[in-house]
Amino acid sequence: MQTHDVQIDGDLVRKRFIDGKPGGAEREWRALQLLAEHAPGLAPSPVEYGTDLVVMSRIEGTPLFLLPAVPERELVEAVDRLHGAVPRQVLDRVPQRLWPVERIRDQLLVWAGRWRPKNELADQAVAEGARWLSGWEPGERGVRPVFGASDGNRANFLWDGVRVRIVDFEESGRSDRATEVAEMAEHVSCWVRGESELCFELDSAEERRLLECRRLFALMWVFLLKDEGPRNPPGTFMRAVRRALDRLG
Q1: Residues facing residue 7 across a β-bridge
Q2: What is the torsion angle, in degrees rounded to the nearest 10, for the CA atoms of residue 151, residue 183, residue 98 and residue 64?
Q3: Residues in domain Aminoglycoside phosphotransferase (predicted)?
Q4: Is the entire prediction scored with pTM above 0.90?
Q5: What is the mean pLDDT of residues 200-209?
Q6: How far apart (Å, rounded) are the C-alpha atoms in residues 186 and 127?
Q7: Which of 33, 57, 83, 200 has the most CB atoms at less than 10 Å from its CB?
Q8: Is 92 inside any structural domain?
């Protein structure tokens, strides 16, 4: 499902939001402005903002999802720069990411309640996941506020041969370090063609929160992939099920 229409006009990119969900263009524009001021060069430069429209500079690069090998060090450097870019006094005024973990937890419980039996392993993952979600309170433990893109899709990270830059901020906002790292680690684009574990610097409380958030996002992909389509290789859904059971175990 497309959430936006992108047109390239020379050195400019015109991104029009077509999914009818409010706030996407505003979040994208806010992110581009913040990063242009606090981390220039990491993302496209903001050019023009209108109703459901963001115009930005075009940046060159190949999406990491298409590369045979991910430049892991440069990817970590780009994400570290993103997370540390916005000063705390500015970050405190930035709205939360579109899907904070509490909202994801509540949505997954709704989906679990509507689950129709599929196969033994998938049903087990949903049942065990629902039990864990029902007792999980994220709280403030392990929270280090950061500005997050809140989308771990490796198609949004571009490699130009020297550095990694980032695009697509329609779900961005104030987040925390462990949540953002977990979302990247469990995004289907990060494991569907072979797995690699990125090494981010986290303190002990963040490491514990990371494990919990990885459970959350692994479960999320079980629901998102249950109606397996042509976008991913055959068997992707069952790989997601096994990942979720591993995280829960």
Answers
A1: 14
A2: 0
A3: 11-187
A4: yes
A5: 94
A6: 20
A7: 83
A8: yes
CB 245 within 8 A of CB 125: yes
Measure the CA–CA gap between 4 and 122, rounded to whole angstroms.
Answer: 32
- pLDDT band at residue 141 under the 50/70/90 scheme: confident
Q: Tell me if 33 is assigned to some domain.
A: no
- Domain membership of residue 121 (yes or no) is no
| Strand 53-57 with 46-50, pairing | antiparallel
Give the CATH number of the domain where residue 165 resides: 3.90.1200
Domain that holds residue 141: 61-100+133-248
Tell me how many degrees the CA angle 53-102-203 measures, rounded to the nearest 5: 100
In b/e form, how buried is each residue of 215-237, taking b as 16+ CB within 10 angstroms?
A: bbbbbbbbbebbeeeeebeeebb
Banded model confidence at residue 77, pLDDT cuts 50, 70, 90: very high
Domain count, the chain: 1
